[in-house]
Structures are given as C-alpha cells and as structure tokens.
Amino acid sequence: MSAVRSFNDFDKLEEIVVGSAEGFSFPPIDNSLKHFFEPPLGAESEAVSAGTLARVVEETEEDLQVLAGTLEDLGVRVRRPERADHSRPIGVLEWKSTANHALMPRDCLLVVGDTVIEAPMAMRARYAETFPYRKLLREYFDGGARWLAAPRPQLLDETYQYDEAGTPVLAELEPLFDAANIIRCGSDLFFNVSNTGNRLGAAWLARALGPGYRVHEIAISSDHVGTTLHVLKPGVLLANAGRLDSDRIPEPLRGWKTLWFDDPQDDGFGFGWPRASTWIGMNILSVDQDTVIVPQAQKGLAKLLESAGFTAIPVPYRHGRTFGGGFHCCSADVRRAGELTSYL
Predict the structure, then answer these.
(1) Distance (Å, rounded) from C-alpha 108 to C-alpha 112?
(2) Which catalytic residues are annotated (predicted)?
(3) I need a surface site. Which of 2, 82, 166, 197 has the fewest CB within 10 A?
C-alpha cells in the first residue's frame, strides 16, 4: 500500500498536508499576477506595514493550528511544509519574480490515486511553490508513491492573453494548470479550463494518468473550482448559486442532488485589496462522506449542509480573502480510505 492514496475529496480522510503562511512575501505585480488576480488600479502602490503583515500571518497560523488540531482529533495525520524565505528571487529566461508562500498545497500538488503531481502553475511567483514540500514528497516517494512533475513552463509574456470579452485566458503554448483547477471524482476528473489551466494542460494530465482515468474539460469559473463546485459525496454536490445554474453543472453530474449556496459572509481582508471574493467562504474540506469542515463565520453554509444530513464542523479562518484561499486551498489530502471507483 502506497503512502499516498486518494481518489476523491470525500472518502474518510487519513492523512493531509496543511500549508503555512509563515514567510509570506508580496511578489511583484507582473503580467502573470494581473492575469490571475485581476488587481484593482493602483495595486502596485499597495503598502502593507510590517506590523500588519506579521499580525495577519500570526492570525492565519493560529487558525491553521486550530484546523490541524481539529483534524487530529478526528484521527487524521497532519503534515506541514518546511519553513522557507519566500522573498528570495526566482527567474527563468526572460522574467524575474519572487516567491509568494507555502500556504496552499491544493494549488500546487495534485494527488490522484498513488500519484503526486507537481502542477505547472501559470503565475510566475508560484514557480517554486512545491519546494517547501519536497522533503515530504521524497518521504512519500520512498513510501511507494509515484512522484511526477508536469513540464516546467517557460511562462513567456505571450502566455497571458484575453478573449473578445476581455476575460483572461492562457495561450496553448505549453501545458499549464494549477492543481486546484481539478475536481477529483474517482476515475473521473473535471478540469476547469480558465486563466489557471489550458486545454494543453488537460491533455497532458489525461496522458500522464493513462486509460484508468477520464479527464473532462469544463469551464465553470475564472480560475480554481473550490469556490464554485464541490462533490460532497456520490450523488450530492455543493454549488455556487451566484455563478452556476443547473445548466452549467458539468453534464455528467447534472442528475445529482445539488445544494445551492447563495449567502457567503464577508470576513473582510487584511491587506490593501482582497485576493479572493466573498465566495472563498464556500472553500470547505470534507473529512468523510458525512462530515465537512466549514469556516466558522459561514453559518448559512453550515445550516445548508446540516439540512442535508451532513455534520458541519466550524473552524475559525479570518484571512481567506486576504490571501485568496480557504480550507480546501490550504490543504492537500494525501491519503483517504476507499478504492478507485467510477461514480458516473
């Protein structure tokens, strides 16, 4: 049995990696960052004091420790990344940037079965984001896991394009995707083509995984899918009512029961501009098919889940909008019970 084994987001959780905000650094606002975050005018002059940054990081680490403790109380083994100085410069050929954080392993590491894939992320500041997880990856490899990395992208300026409506899109020059573009559902994976994943990325993933998996292209949000759609368990979805309707649910899932969430609470943000919308409030983490960890402030979401028979466990998380990631983003499940199954 491999140390890594996870086919979906809902079977009983056994081991998980939880990220860290320590060492957070503000990268330069280059084309790739503008493409991902679409910051407001004047964002280049954002001024965050050292005291504010230290407070936000400390509060985030406090909340992540509560998350880790909650998971451990539920019998889940929790792992953390190595500490790193994310202000160090990085660069490839024609561009330079600095690293950003090790807060969101869901974005950079894709677990499919016994395989961990380092994603070819589209934002330059995230080029080396898997490095603080490398010792863990080596441990998992030594424990029998397959460890792959998608082709390292060049991330040239012409990568970052816009369609006729002015929506950011990625050129089809090389395979690109964040791991958080993907919904895992047993032998079926749903790949969101967006400003953080292109069709070439979906094709590479399908070939890397082989005939045991089907990769479906979808387009349901502008970037990651964790604030738009979750598979809570076979036959049940949680969907963003502000972005989707029944016709926009991926076709293979349209017959499933859907819990429509339409009332995210605004936690505010600690920097000059938010890195996520209020919908980060639906970025939840399933412990098993009956138990879901939700942000403490999202009482409406907890009520919705409980009305459908789930146990909602509230955990504080103050800075989802500040950093642009919630519980799903800030974790990557390494091992869940269960076998490879087709649910469709």
Answers:
(1) 13
(2) 178, 224, 329 (amidino-cysteine intermediate)
(3) 166
